[in-house]
Fold:
Amino acid sequence: MPPSRQPELLVTGRNNQSRGLPSPEQSSALRQERYFLYGALILFTIIAFSAALYFIINQTQSNSSPSQPEILFGNNYVSGTIPNLGNGHLVIDRQNWGAQSDTRGPYPLQHPTPYVLITHIGVQSTPCIDMYRCSIKMRTIQDAAVAELNLPDIPNNFYLGGDGFIYVGRGWDIANAYANHTLSVCFMGDYIRYEPNDKQFSALEHLLAHGVAKDYLTKDYQLVAHNQTRTTRSPGPYVYDRISKMPRWSPCGTAGYSACGAEIGLPTVWAQDYPKKNITSNHPPTTNGETV
Structure:
């Protein structure tokens, strides 16, 4: 009888069973995958918990702190609003650009006003392009007018920034530094050197339309340039060229026409705020910030 081969079969059986188990390398890979999955779950839990905690803290602070006042926009001078005259032309009041609180022109401005005078800053002034720079320029103009020129306040009633905003100088109720019975509007820059932009002329049109609607201006007011009322290069050729094409522009003060305002008794030279020693001359100083 041939010898039995059973022991060999048993060995072979054990080897087949061992083949169903993962190898040491495979076990290590599986452990790494589990660790990676556990780590990702833990990280996700931490992030979710942190986000929830952040939201709860912020919500609690918002509920406990006083609410900030809402900025309102209106078409008038209601307290607490920033007037918007249309087309994005905000009116930046004196306190908003940082005016000296104790300065004020000496003469009231009677309404409705029959003349609108257009000036510019001049003296190689670069046009300002945003509220921050325009506010700095407004403070500089006021400081120079009061400290250097002995004027009681910033010269003009309103100023037009390159940002399309309207900055309040003496406003609607106080006469400007040129002539009573007039409203002066200044383009903020040197428009002998630079060209004004369309936003400034749009702001001018909206301001004057508002003035007529509120009876600050007469319905037939006359628009004149600074150089039509005295010897000066203000408001610069670029501004003058455009305003001379506007419907309300008057040729008064130019060759062949009478002096501007002669029919209502205004002086030939418009410079009412200057000291008496300067007013006696036919040509007052030309360094008031808008007369170069």
